[in-house]
């Protein structure tokens, strides 16, 4: 081809490209997103529009649109898509009382999410957990400590939850002013939703006081919509005042869209539309067509599920018009343009984030830092902590001491490495110190298993090799292959897949390994299953179970000889409902308290690492053990098997330091007497073991504060299903709790001087400054969390006090700092009984300044708005 021909073809190509842009404005990156959306919308058929309203949005090849999966998780790190940095569970992050630290964490999370998305897109992969729309944060109010999903929240206080939620959203979505958004966050679950888990698909949160709705349940959502410009809101499973939340005109239209001016996407929690018509669920509608139309007209744009496929029928039957569907599709298309998902990836600056940020050293340091900040010291008799190194014999006991999976929490990724609490303590000891480790107790049950999982190795490495088929016959080549290095904990409840790329239903799996026991005896294989499971040893089926109505246990005992090889295979087949497969095996024996006490007799101190686990508390779980039901708790005490062992250690004259790992408050009444110290460690993430050890040995001075009230027992709690705030949380509780909201100890002491206001009488709408001198009266540097609470003087039905400002700050030993906190007009919003809404109105306020919410820790000022 000569040069003249080359020039001709180049010119012709440019002409064609210009013509295409002229004809197809939606492809022109120079145009506004809104113009491009309108052009693309008019090119779609009704069927194509509806296909875009499902969480797995189908490709439209004729228009150059790839598939897009809206469902991704990043609760405390990029979740469920391989290696990622795992930070502390959100309830632990809330304990930092440091919203800047939370922002830093989620900025790092968004870096990893973008890097992972670019990696997948380069390989043509667009599956679940690989996209840019993160369904987090969870900002429901943790109104009752029995709720299993409270571990995903930022606690019981509306103001603290608002600030933490805003920080998370801003960290995820990136700075404003960029052409493309970094990610899109999602405020969930809108709006009056906090358990119980077991009946959430049929539960009606009704007869809610209007004041409670606006003063407690809605403020965090309003803050995320107005202050953080969150791009998605997820509606909840339950009903609100008789209507399913995803079809609530009051919530979605009157409040969210009209009053707050929200213009983003509303996504249904997974399967929530099906609950409209599903048998045994809400049953407010007869079928998918009527339910789907109702939800879209109420304002729910995206269905995580398959119910919206019936929208074609809905239009045909006149339940909804195509132009009503256009409203939702317009929002969905705009979001995809804003993320740059429909444009050349080279033009999107966020795609330049390198993959090596994932699980990087810098992010690990961040995980250590926020885990340290979350550590909350609740008791320290006679200053037993910090421990002094040097000829110290430490016994580490308890079910959570060496459990890495517990530390990961739920909705988590897989860290490159986890430092367990046992490992952290071992690394922190001096050269002349000694360590004794004795597990001693399970979480709940009276037997103890020494897991043999670590004695297994497949052809592909330690643990079990896993193959998954997206059919129930294991036919053809496996669709997904992976390696499992820890005991199985798979559950599709809450729409969680067994592995990335595996369907929620109609799938099968085989898990293979070679087990070489280290000693002879009987091993017990323990399964908890919803589905069909077969256990094969050396190719022969030895046990099987089929669960038809909920999960079932299966156990099998087998004699083994040390050093002999045993080929193990576990076959799993989906049957019905939510699939579940929990599995571990090993040597079991009855718990022997006396034996444990004897083994630690030479210890100077016993560090008991106990509590509960995300395998017991969480989203709609199939675990029903004493004290637990469906993911929720039925009591709040430390499980009896742990209480008994702690008491025995105390009776044996041992100093017991309790390190408690839980996402929920524990009723520590006996432990207050039986333990010298109590450290609340939450679910501290991949570096939690180092953070705990740093606190125990004084390498870090703790300053975490409780974001939830620690009650004495369930007798202090109202009925779980009652959503009235009366008697709940520090804001309305009349009794004295075990440990109050905002409480936490330090290794140093702080003295508060006389606080002052810059003005005692101000016009409504003006800002007030509160100044209080705080002195570190101890011998070491430390951090203090200064807290400001308000109440309205003549308001008899409102909260006793409610948090309105706080600041975490470092104060060197012996120094005094004048701490200045700002109370803006927004902070003085209060319930107006006359207008039945929140506003800033004239009146006298009490201002409380101090170190926790309890009265003895606060100093009182008076202020008048006029």
From TrEMBL:
SUPFAM superfamilies: (Trans)glycosidases, Anthrax protective antigen, Beta-D-glucan exohydrolase, C-terminal domain
Protein's name in the database: Glycoside hydrolase family 3 protein
Entry-linked PROSITE patterns: PA14
Keyword Hydrolase: yes
MF (Gene Ontology): alpha-L-arabinofuranosidase activity; beta-glucosidase activity; xylan 1,4-beta-xylosidase activity
Pfam family, one: PA14
Family the UniProt entry places it in: Belongs to the glycosyl hydrolase 3 family.
């Amino acid at each position: 081809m000569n040069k003249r021909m080359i020039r001709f073809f180049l010119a012709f190509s440019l002409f064609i490209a210009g013509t295409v842009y002229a004809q197809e404005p939606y492809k022109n990156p120079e145009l506004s997103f809104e113009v491009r959306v309108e052009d693309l919308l008019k090119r779609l058929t009704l069927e194509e529009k509806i296909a875009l309203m499902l969480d797995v949005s189908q490709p439209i090849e004729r228009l150059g649109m790839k598939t897009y999966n809206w469902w991704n998780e990043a609760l405390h790190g990029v979740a469920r898509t391989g290696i990622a940095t795992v930070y502390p569970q959100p309830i632990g992050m809330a304990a930092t009382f440091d919203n800047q630290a939370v922002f830093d964490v989620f900025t790092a999370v968004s870096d990893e999410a973008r890097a992972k998305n670019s990696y997948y897109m380069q390989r043509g992969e667009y599956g679940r957990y690989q996209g840019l729309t993160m369904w987090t944060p969870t900002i429901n109010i943790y109104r009752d400590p029995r709720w299993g999903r409270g571990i995903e929240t930022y606690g019981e206080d509306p103001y603290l939850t608002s600030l933490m939620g805003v920080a998370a959203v801003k960290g995820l979505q990136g700075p404003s002013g960029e052409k493309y958004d970094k990610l899109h966050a999602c405020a969930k679950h809108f709006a009056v939703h906090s358990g119980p888990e077991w009946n959430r698909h049929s539960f009606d949160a009704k007869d809610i006081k209007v004041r409670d709705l606006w003063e407690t349940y809605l403020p965090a959502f309003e803050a995320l919509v107005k202050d953080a410009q969150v791009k998605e809101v997820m509606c909840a499973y339950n009903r609100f005042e008789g209507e399913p939340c995803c079809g609530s005109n009051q919530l979605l239209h009157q409040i969210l869209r009209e009053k707050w001016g929200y213009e983003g996407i509303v996504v249904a929690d997974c399967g929530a539309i099906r609950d409209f018509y599903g048998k045994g669920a809400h049953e407010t509608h007869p079928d998918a067509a009527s339910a789907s139309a109702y939800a879209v007209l109420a304002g729910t744009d995206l269905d995580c599920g398959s119910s919206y496929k019936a929208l074609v029928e809905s239009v045909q039957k006149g339940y909804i018009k195509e132009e009503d569907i256009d409203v939702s599709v317009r929002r969905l298309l705009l979001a995809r343009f804003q993320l740059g998902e429909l444009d050349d990836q080279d033009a999107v600056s966020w795609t330049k984030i390198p993959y090596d940020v994932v699980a990087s050293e810098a992010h690990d340091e961040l995980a250590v830092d926020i885990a340290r900040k979350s550590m909350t010291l609740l008791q320290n008799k006679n200053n037993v902590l910090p421990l002094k190194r040097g000829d110290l014999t430490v016994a580490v006991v308890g079910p959570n001491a060496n459990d890495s999976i517990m530390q990961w929490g739920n909705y988590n990724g897989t860290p490159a490495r986890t430092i367990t609490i046992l490992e952290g303590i071992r690394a922190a000891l001096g050269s002349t110190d000694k360590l004794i480790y004795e597990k001693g107790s399970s979480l709940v049950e009276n037997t103890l298993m020494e897991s043999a999982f670590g004695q297994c190795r497949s052809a592909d490495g330690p643990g079990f090799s896993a193959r998954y088929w997206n059919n129930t016959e294991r036919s053809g080549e496996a669709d997904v292959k992976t390696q499992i290095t820890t005991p199985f904990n798979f559950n599709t409840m809450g729409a969680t897949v067994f592995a990335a790329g595996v369907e929620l239903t109609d799938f099968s799996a085989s898990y293979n390994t070679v087990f070489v026991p280290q000693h002879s005896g009987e091993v017990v294989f323990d399964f908890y299953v919803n589905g069909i499971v077969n256990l094969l040893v050396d190719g022969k089926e030895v046990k099987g179970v089929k669960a038809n109505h909920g999960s079932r246990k299966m156990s099998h005992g087998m004699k083994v000889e040390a050093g002999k090889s045993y080929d193990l295979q576990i076959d799993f087949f989906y049957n019905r409902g939510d699939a579940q497969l929990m599995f571990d095996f090993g040597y079991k024996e009855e718990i022997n308290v006396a034996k444990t006490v004897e083994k630690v007799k030479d210890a100077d101190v016993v560090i008991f690492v106990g509590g509960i686990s995300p395998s017991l508390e969480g989203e709609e779980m199939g675990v029903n053990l004493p004290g637990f039901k469906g993911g929720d708790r039925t009591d709040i005490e430390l499980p009896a098997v742990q209480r008994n062992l702690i008491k025995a250690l105390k009776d044996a004259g041992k100093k017991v330091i309790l390190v408690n790992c839980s996402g929920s408050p524990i009723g520590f009444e006996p432990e207050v007497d039986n333990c010298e110290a109590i450290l609340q460690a939450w679910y501290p993430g991949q570096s939690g073991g180092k953070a705990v050890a740093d606190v125990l040995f004084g390498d870090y001075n703790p300053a975490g504060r409780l974001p939830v009230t620690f009650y004495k027992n369930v007798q202090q709690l109202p009925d779980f299903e009652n959503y009235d705030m009366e008697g709940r949380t520090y804001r309305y509780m009349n009794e004295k709790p075990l440990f109050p909201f905002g409480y936490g100890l330090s290794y140093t002491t702080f003295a508060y001087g006389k606080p002052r206001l810059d003005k005692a009488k101000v016009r409504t709408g003006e800002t007030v400054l509160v100044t209080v001198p705080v002195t570190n009266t101890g011998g070491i540097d430390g951090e203090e969390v200064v807290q400001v609470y308000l109440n309205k003087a003549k308001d008899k039905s409102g909260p006793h006090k409610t948090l309105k400002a706080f600041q975490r700050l470092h104060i060197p030993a012996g120094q005094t700092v004048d701490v200045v906190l700002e109370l803006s007009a927004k902070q003085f919003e209060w319930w107006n009984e006359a207008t039945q809404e929140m506003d800033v109105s004239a009146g006298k306020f009490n201002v409380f300044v101090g170190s926790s919410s309890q009265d003895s820790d606060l100093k009182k000022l008076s202020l008048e708005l006029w």
